[in-house]
Amino acid sequence: RVIPWRANFIISSELPSAQLAQRLHVSPTTPLLVLERVSFDKNDKVIEKTVHHLLPEVYKLSVKVKRMTVKRTDDQIRILTSGGCDSSISLRCYYFSVDISLKLLL
Question: Do the Cβ atoms of 92 and 77 come closer than 8 Å?
């Protein structure tokens, strides 16, 4: 069983190839929003790669960022929201949870 653990997203804009423009019924000079995602398992092995080509006037991109605290004790890692601190924990790292969503506007 493969369980996604983390993912990297790259968001960019590019012009479509002639073939992609034809498939999307747009001009080759129409900029597209490109969303690339690489997903990893717990051992940092790539388990999925996807590329999405989106018409920017059809989708709305929303990004939500939330601070998370990772507290580590020996072999156990617990991810907690940054609501409280425990002074008995020796290692404290801060990360951000990012929620990215695309909304179809049509």
Answer: no
